[in-house]
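Dear support,

We are seeing what looks like truncated structure output for some complexes. This example has two components. We would appreciate it if you could run it in full and send us the complete token output so we can diff it against ours.
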Amino acid sequence: MATTIPIGPYHPLQEEPEHYLLTVEEEEVIDVDVQIGYNHRGIEKLSEKKTFNQVPFLVERVCGICSHSHPYAYCLAVEDCGDIEVPERAKYIRTLIGELERIHSHLLWAGLAGHFIGYDTVFMWAWKYREDVLDLLELLTGNRNAYAMMKPGGVQREIKREDLEGARPKLETLREKSEMLYNAILDDPVLKARLEGVGVLPREDARAFGALGPTSRASGLPADVRADFPYGVYDELDWKVITREDGDTLARVEVRLLETLESIKMTEQIIDEIPDEGSIDSEPENVPAGEGIGNYEAPRGECFHYVQSDGSNRPVRHKIRAPTFMNFPTYKSTCKGETVADATIILASVDPCYSCTERAISLKNNEDVDLLELSQQKTADLKQEYGVDKSPLEEVLDE
Amino acid sequence: MNPSTFKEKLSGRFGWKLGKAKQNSDRLYLNPEPEIFENLVEAIFEDHDGRLATISCVDEENQFRLLYHFVFDGEGFITTVKLPVERDENPSTESIANLIPGAEWIEREIMEMFGIDFQNNPAKKRLLKADSLGDKDFPYRKDFDVENLEEN
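Here is the complete output from our reference environment:
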């Protein structure tokens, strides 16, 4: 006899609200249904009321984890619409932040995945090393998240050479630790038993559902926007697209861990090659009437933005499609026939992000100055710890 | 393959019915006659391996326009197929979710946000619209009054 198990919308296992309905026969999952919408904020509608230069700050709040991905995809769409050039140095800065973001996102996921299958040592490790990446991002941009670096035509702020050099030693340790994590996870017989052959997404299903990012690459589809539509400086860097043929949960873990190592390699190359001189903003005057598409390889897969302009200073239509929106429906293929105990890790293995999927609350700025000061103080302390001098932010504040 | 050669291939099959096209080095926008729409989508998805990225719905106030974005990953270009939908009491169009399973959620989102009915969509039920909004409230339409929306 079939039984229905409801999980959520609020459940200790979940960090965001979503509602699953598992239909099970004894231990076997025979059907899954999902209800979302608990985070819907109407960002696409809000975007129509902002100017082209304000939108990046809005879409940065689509997701707290990929807070560089959405503004980047949006800027690519606007630049496509208005044929706007981006200076070389700005491209390097954009790519640098994008890759650091990928490292922190993949480590975050690795930790959560360990937690979901009751292996909290992995959770502790991964999140410990992720903390270092967040420190690096704070060192370079002033924020752990929501970096506010993007604008159509370039980036908002400079990154100084001494800050970049300050990041090097930490990247070196990060690589060692990530390699250690990779080997430890893949050598572990318990993890292997829990992940191998579980929740297989066949290649043809990945294509039919339009699966993206690590989810599709673990099923043998080599699609990666960074390679297929080389925005930023990806065509100048030495890196490879990671794919696996098995399509199971273990393959998705492996793809993400190897991508983390690729991202660390790319970050170091960028620090080597970024020009020290040059403009960071082409200062486009206006966006002509027309339409543009921006696609960007976020940690979870392709972020897709479509922008339509009527020649005024606001978008007429701004469509946002986050990767989880396409990845999540693959549960129909991966969960059926599996056991209840495995359903959680399978559902989690696409690295679902509901905030993105629904994207659509805007909070009024409460201008809490004390909080802002505390945050700036923390960045300053961090810089001292890294042996780096004043940040541009501090210099501005001093003036 | 690039947008020009791809357009030629499609013209060879659909002729003038492919309609006006706009293109540059990595984008192709098509405005086909509605009667060939389904065959065209099938050809792009089945024969040419286009991946359905998403469907954008634009409220042009006198009508809706659906933009089906297909990404050609290995080739590095994006083809957008545009389909106008009449803005009457019950705007509707045919679903493509039976051909492309990935379209199911995309269509359900547009059904809730714009009130366009996708006939034969296999799962017509609420996906993400708030319970406080009625069946006839379509928040992403241009004439939806956001200012007087009560918070709850």
